[in-house]
DNA sequence: GAGTAGACTTGCGACTAAAAAT
DNA sequence: ATTTTTAGTCGCAAGTCTACTC
């Protein structure tokens, strides 16, 4: 019923704006019916302006500001430099981290208790809260933190506090540990109150009115201040992420809408009415000085439409990919170095689903993608493990996730790579004659809208469809089909190198599962024995009662067998998923219509594949895809 | 072209709520 | 009923790519 209502409301929504918006739905249907028509044909129908104009009316309440800092109670002290008191000098050689473990000692023979100014104290709490995190022991983190902290101190504080290792945050740390403990032990009623408060907030700030329709906002809460922790070896880790003031925030909404009110006594940096962008509010983040935005939720029409476009572009690549592949193969033997490099780079992007690899400054972790690969990131093997022309990749990619792969490549690629690295140092660029901009320009000439990342979408979706076809057979149970789906999903995640840290409890939970399986097997043995006896009893002295018993035992064996199978499926699935993250590809790379069609074709309920949030995001695909959809 | 700013997508891990096990 | 495990959500960092300027 709910689904039905949603569908109806969608329909009303769409019909209400037949002229402008209907094209999203109708052109999808239209597109399905006549695959030969391109996406750009569809877009032209909407009128050219729709490409740049993102809305015609936009109203919202502005961002939600995190609560002001609450100073620590007076009995919680920050202590500095224990040497003036009775602390033994041996203690002073400990770092501040060790001092946490030495808490008892510190409390007894504490250094100077220092009452910090609210600003300084707040920053101290950021650090104190992180104390049992490994990265507070990193030098870069400590230096960045201390540097930024001192900058915010009063003159007097700065004069006193000169060395981080003399800072004792242990009381503050303890205070917050206790607080979080308290929060955990709240009663049901208290939790309920909090929940209601949250939903009230959501109600007030969580939605906007876009072209007359209420749409969910993705991140209506401004990011609270804290210490920056980049990923990998980030040179800026530990720096202070400042509190965002209304005076930092630009509001974007329509001219005639109710302009959101800034918090009392404040004003916005700016209020603008730019309908060529989709964001509602923005500010400059102080770590890198880059803009951040408040935008709509993925379930919104604006985002959904964009998502759909992305997959349509990938489907157009499908039609074009053969000729593009032919072209880059030709480029491998070009007289021009830059064309050869381009040819090999596109080959990697296509074959290995590498990211484009933009230039990066040294203010961020040292990670690379295709175009920014350095000589040191590949090793060439003429022969390796009975394979010829193997390239061994080893580099850190996005989010400092390691990409490690040994790939046999075509002879000409191998030859080219040898050429590219000739007379170069390890830290030189492998592709020194190309950039992502040039590469994308070339791609765009082959097909409008084509960029490096389209290959990832295209290869991911193609792989999913192929794998699903290969792995699903009729006669499978729903559970088996789901395992097949997960395996297909996994093939994509591996292709895209979507990794995760193995869950902390992995080994233990795996062991538990194995024990369960063992137990189940024993139960089956037992049940079989009983069945045998029942059979014999029935044969010896057939009666209604014995017959019933026999049937009962048969059923028990069967049921246990099914349970065992289910457990074994679970085991396989979990083992194979140990370090693979399926979420990213599911959410960003796999055309949802493939999954919807598969579910329909094989009678798998869509709820088994997509949870509620995912169903909201992919509502467009769920509503309009039939079982015959082909990517 | 090269460099930069801006806008938008992609990505992992931490936290939290719900479900399952005890 | 309580504890443990799992699934789902949130937070925000880190990419891609385009447009603009010089």
TrEMBL record:
GO terms for biological process: chromosome segregation; DNA replication; DNA topological change. InterPro entries: DNA_brk_join_enz, DNA_topo_DNA_db_N_dom1, DNA_topo_DNA_db_N_dom2, TopoI, TopoI_C_dom, TopoI_cat_a-hlx-sub_euk, TopoI_cat_a/b-sub_euk, TopoI_cat_euk. Releases the supercoiling and torsional tension of DNA introduced during the DNA replication and transcription by transiently cleaving and rejoining one strand of the DNA duplex. Introduces a single-strand break via transesterification at the specific target site 5'-[CT]CCTTp site in duplex DNA. The scissile phosphodiester is attacked by the catalytic tyrosine of the enzyme, resulting in the formation of a DNA-(3'-phosphotyrosyl)-enzyme intermediate and the expulsion of a 5'-OH DNA strand. The free DNA strand then undergoes passage around the unbroken strand thus removing DNA supercoils. SMART domains: TOPEUc. The keyword Mitochondrion does not apply. It is found in: Nucleus. The keyword Chaperone does not apply. Keywords: Coiled coil, DNA-binding, Isomerase, Nucleus, Topoisomerase. The active site is at 589 (o-(3'-phospho-dna)-tyrosine intermediate). This is DNA topoisomerase I. It catalyses: ATP-independent breakage of single-stranded DNA, followed by passage and rejoining. PROSITE patterns: TOPO_IB_1, TOPO_IB_2. Residues 177-204, 510-577 form a coiled coil. GO terms for molecular function: DNA binding; DNA topoisomerase type I (single strand cut, ATP-independent) activity. It comes from Cyprinus carpio carpio. GO terms for cellular component: chromosome; nucleolus. Residues 227-603 form the DNA topoisomerase I eukaryotic-type domain. Its main location: nucleus. Its EC number is 5.6.2.1. Belongs to the type IB topoisomerase family.
């Amino acid at each position: 019923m709910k689904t039905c209502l949603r569908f109806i409301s969608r329909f009303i929504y769409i019909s209400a704006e037949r002229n402008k918006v209907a094209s999203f739905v109708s052109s999808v249907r239209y597109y399905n019916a006549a695959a030969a028509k391109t996406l750009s044909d569809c877009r032209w129908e909407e009128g050219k302006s729709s490409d740049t104009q993102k809305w015609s009316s936009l109203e919202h309440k502005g961002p939600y500001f995190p609560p002001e800092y609450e100073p620590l109670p007076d009995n919680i002290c920050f202590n500095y430099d224990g040497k003036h008191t009775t602390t033994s000098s041996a203690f002073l050689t400990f770092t501040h981290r060790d001092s946490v473990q030495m808490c008892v000692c510190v409390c007894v023979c504490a250094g100077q208790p220092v009452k910090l100014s609210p600003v300084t104290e707040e920053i101290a709490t950021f650090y104190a809260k992180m104390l049992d995190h490994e990265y507070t022991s990193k030098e870069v983190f400590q230096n960045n933190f201390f540097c930024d902290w001192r900058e915010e101190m009063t003159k007097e504080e700065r004069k006193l506090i000169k060395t981080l290792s003399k800072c004792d945050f242990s009381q503050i740390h303890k205070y917050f540990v206790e607080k979080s403990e308290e929060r955990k032990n709240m009663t049901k009623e208290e939790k309920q109150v909090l929940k209601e408060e949250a939903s009230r907030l959501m109600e007030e700030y969580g939605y906007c009115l876009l072209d007359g329709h209420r749409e969910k906002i993705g991140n209506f809460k401004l990011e609270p201040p804290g210490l920056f922790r980049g990923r990998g070896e980030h040179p800026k880790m530990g720096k202070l992420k400042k509190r965002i003031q209304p005076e930092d925030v630009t509001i974007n909404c329509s001219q005639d809408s109710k302009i959101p009110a800034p918090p009392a006594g404040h004003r916005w940096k700016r209020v603008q009415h730019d309908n060529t962008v989709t964001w509602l509010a923005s500010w400059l983040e102080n770590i890198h000085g880059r803009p951040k935005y408040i935008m709509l939720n993925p379930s919104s029409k604006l985002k959904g439409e964009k998502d759909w476009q992305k997959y349509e572009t990938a489907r157009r690549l499908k039609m074009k990919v053969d000729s593009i592949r032919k072209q880059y193969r030709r480029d491998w033997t070009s007289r021009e170095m830059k064309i050869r490099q381009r040819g090999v780079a596109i080959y990697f992007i296509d074959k290995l689903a590498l990211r484009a690899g933009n230039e990066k400054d040294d203010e961020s972790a040292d990670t690379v993608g295709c175009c920014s690969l350095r000589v040191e990131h590949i090793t060439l093997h003429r022969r390796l493990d009975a394979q010829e022309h193997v390239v061994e990749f080893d580099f850190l990619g996005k989010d400092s996730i390691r990409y490690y792969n040994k790939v046999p490549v075509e002879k000409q690629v191998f030859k080219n790579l040898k050429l590219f690295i000739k007379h170069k140092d390890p830290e030189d660029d492998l592709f020194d004659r190309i950039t992502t901009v040039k590469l994308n320009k070339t791609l765009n000439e082959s097909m409008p809208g084509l960029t490096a990342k389209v290959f990832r979408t295209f290869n991911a979706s193609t792989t999913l469809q192929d794998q699903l076809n290969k792995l699903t057979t009729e006669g499978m149970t729903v559970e088996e089909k789901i395992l097949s789906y997960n395996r297909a999903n996994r093939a994509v995640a591996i292709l895209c190198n979507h990794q995760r840290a193995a869950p902390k409890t992995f080994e233990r939970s795996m062991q538990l599962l194995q024990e369960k399986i063992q137990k189940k097997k024993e139960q089956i043995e037992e049940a079989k024995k009983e069945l045998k006896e029942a059979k014999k009893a029935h044969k010896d002295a057939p009666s209604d009662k014995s017959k019933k018993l026999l049937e009962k035992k048969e059923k028990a064996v069967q049921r246990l067998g099914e349970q065992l199978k289910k457990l074994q499926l679970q085991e396989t699935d979990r083992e194979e998923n140990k370090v693979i993250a399926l979420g990213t590809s599911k959410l960003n790379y796999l055309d949802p219509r493939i999954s919807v069609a598969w579910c329909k074709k094989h009678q798998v309920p869509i709820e088994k594949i997509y949870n509620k949030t995912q169903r909201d995001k992919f509502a467009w695909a769920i509503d309009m895809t039939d079982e015959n959809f082909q990517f």
